[in-house]
Design goal:
This protein has 154 residues and is an alpha+beta fold. It contains four helices and three strands; from the N terminus they run αααββαβ. Strands 1-2-3 form a three-stranded mixed sheet. Helix 2 packs across helix 4. The chain is elongated.
Length: 154
């Protein structure tokens, strides 16, 4: 016996079971990763109030397309051989809303969030991220904590 198994018969997903990842799991994972990434930017974090540091994330997850036995998915795209790649459990569309300190490297922070969230969702949840949007909802200035009646920050 060589230890190699022959090709498995193609059993439809509904008959063999499937692993699904819920939208809220993807959203919580993305929020945790985004918070972790933003905490590395100390010049920005100090200006944001502690109760506003957790990013708000919405996620929409689609199941991975069913594969047929000829190396194509149900949408007709060629599939790489399974050796050397992780199975994809689905496709995620993620929208992350953050609040950042100002002045800071806003573009750099958003790019780091996009990069890390995409990478970690692929590794931790087996999700391909087809669309990831990072929106800056509010900027917190070091001067914004002044009492009312003081000069406005421009």
């Amino acid at each position: 016996m060589t230890g190699e198994a022959g090709p498995r018969p193609g059993v439809p997903r509904r008959e063999r079971g499937a692993i699904t990842v819920a939208d809220r799991v993807v959203a919580k994972t993305a929020a945790r990763v985004a918070r972790e990434v933003l905490s590395r930017f100390t010049e920005s974090t100090g200006h944001v109030p502690p109760d506003r540091r957790t990013p708000h994330v919405t996620a929409y997850v689609r199941r991975a397309p069913e594969r047929d036995t000829r190396g194509r998915d149900t949408e007709g795209r060629d599939i790489e051989p399974a050796a050397g790649r992780q199975a994809v459990l689905g496709e995620a569309q993620v929208h992350i809303t953050v609040e950042l300190g100002y002045p800071s490297a806003i573009g750099e922070q958003c790019a780091a969030v996009r990069r890390e969230v995409t990478e970690r969702l692929r590794t931790w949840a087996g999700m391909e991220v087809s669309d990831l949007v990072v929106s800056v909802e509010r900027l917190h200035s070091a001067h914004s904590g002044r009492p009312s009646g003081m000069e406005r920050v421009r």
